[in-house]
Amino acid sequence: MTTDNTIARDVVLARIRQALGRTGSMAASAEPVAPDVPRRYRHAGEHPPGSPALVDLFVDRLEDYRARVARSADDHASIASTVRETVVLALSPNGTEDHADGGEVQDGILTAPGIPTAWVSGIGTRPDLGTMTPAELDAVPAVVTGSVVAIAETGTIVLDGSPLCGRRALTLVPDVHICVVRTADVVQTVPEALARLDPSRPLTFVSGPSATSDIELNRVEGVHGPRTLAVILAG
Amino acid sequence: MSTFLGMPSGSVGGYGNLPPGSGNLAGEVPFPAAARAALDNARLRRNLGHATATIRAKRAAVVGEVPDWEALRDAGEAIKASTMARLPELLEQLEGNIVARGGRVHWARDAGEANEIVTGLVRATGTTEVVKVKSMATQEIGLNEALESAGITAHETDLAELIVQLGHDKPSHILVPAIHRGRAEVREIFLREMPGVDPALTDDPPVLAAAARAHLREVFLRAKVAVSGANFAVAETGTLSVVESEGNGRMCLTLPDTLITVMGIEKLVPAWTDLEVFLQLLPRSSTGERMNPYTSTWSGVTPGDGPQEFHLVLLDNGRTRVLADEHGRSALHCIRCSACLNVCPVYERVGGHAYGSVYPGPIGAILSPQLTGLDGRDTNPNDTLPYASSLCGACYDVCPVKIPIPDQLVRLRAEHIEAHSDSAHLPTPEGAAMRAAAWIMSDARRFARAGRAALKARRGIRRGKPIIPLPPPLNRWTASRDVPDLPDETFRDWWARTHPQDVNAGPGEHE
User: Fold this and answer.
1) CB A216 to CB B113 under 8 A?
2) How far apart (Å, rounded) are the C-alpha atoms in residues B347 and B180?
3) Model pTM?
4) So what's the pLDDT on residue A27?
5) Contact status, residue B299 vs residue B239, Cβ threshold 8 Å
6) Do B251 and A224 touch (CB under 8 A)?
7) Across the interface, do B290 and A155 touch by the CB < 8 Å criterion?
8) How far, in Å, CA of B246 to CA of B159, rounded?
9) What DSSP designation does A25 have?
10) Contact in structure between B166 and B190 (CB atoms under 8 Å)
């Protein structure tokens, strides 16, 4: 830190103390007392994590924001077959089911390094080693990752930069993001989700594909982030 | 909302001698003149009317589905008040945590100092361009202009900011700086200013969004330095967050080697659990979504993931001045959702440019004059902002942290009148009229006589306007307001006529 900045720091902190009436003779201010924070809002919803009603709500919210949703059983073989169908569908030029039947899976799909390899068996994927540049990631057609928690009421999945979720650039630059969410990780409310997260990790809360409301305040999907978000609900 | 029409209590304007902010906090013309020009622009009014009606309906729908909305507002208000009361300790805690996680923290007393710090940091990297996430703080300090004069190109990456930047325009809304532009105008700007744009571009919003994606992709992939603001900073964990929609924020926060975040000192919250309140309040209040598409949080530097050099610039620029006023300091609780703009009948008609400052609308009308100070001269644009309101109270009803904006507008009007008599040694016309009214109303006999005298004016009013125009300055009142029809007799005369037995116990004319 430069000397100048030490001065600025001391000045700003001194100004704040003066503004709060701790120093100097202020005309009006008595030192404010920090109020108790009333936390009468809901900390948990009425549905336990992963319950069927909650998963239905989550699906409704995801689809409302134009995310694609596929359901799967919780075993690796079911997940693998759903991932494969989802990849083919997401990468087919017109996005139709017909094309998905027996379609070829494109090369070069990346996965988060820590997902079970069984999730992507039978597809030519490779794990992200963290070495590709942004420009190289731009040539990747799709990525498959896990997630750490999901919020039903808001249709949000949360990625935490762990090996299961991948580094942040991985789920950002490629145009298709396929995210496997375990139903047991679906909670109802925002407070329930935050309680499960580690703030020291770089977190990304994703609610639908990239969108903007900047033209006439209407929501339009598809700007800089992945234009296709496909969520596979396993369990 | 029942308290704000009363007279402000306590002394007005306890700002101590703390210095005002500088930068883009005031316009060049007083609000009434700027508003008159804006009202002449039919296209502007149509665009604003359409956009604000859309967002109001969306907000109302997603707020209505939250059963504990009022409890969240109460918590949001208290968390911010608690933050302000402990600000020095919390800032030092934030600083310690960021430094411990590999970041660096810089302090800026004013706009110029913040610009110098950022320019120096960019220069040190050897690059001559930066990508930017939409940030009110950097708009406030005029960072783009400062970088430009240092030979550094700043690319705005938010779609609305891009529309403003390419259109050589100024932002007019906190959330959607190009709200004053309709889709046809956006198309025209892109065709004219965007290099390599498809000449067959239509005005369909998805097509326009795709054009922005293509235009900025290369810039994101090569950028070495990003500049952002921050929506929240958590003191106990050293965590910063940016709430956005398009993914341009994620691009800036993730891909470059160096990230520089400029943040007002009031953007702090004490604890990680406090974010659970604001991540519910902010998206529903601002874009009318249950959750915005992307929220990023980061704590210092994460090896192998994202920028490996992180700088936080903490900005005062008049905020300590606002903090010093015990009534005004709640303006610092603002989380920049812009719900108050979208419901304001004044904002909806005149748009953001008329307010001059980068902070328009109701929150701007209280924040800007407090940041810069009022000087009591009617030629000072920010002196006119507290009057840019009908005091309808809608802004308070939608504010997610319950800032009593109408109360503060009334208080700032009083402050303006005091400053005016101090600077001009003469009361304002309103001040003189109010003093006369106080003299009449403080004596029952005078008040009764004045009532009867007023009835004589009855024949002089037709369809709400005086038959003979009033002389200045009184005509400034009647030019935009109707005079109500006067009754045949005063209430006191009516009471005396219809309740002869109660005259002595009546409404109290002690004759």
Assistant:
1) no
2) 11
3) 0.90
4) 47
5) yes
6) yes
7) yes
8) 8
9) -
10) yes
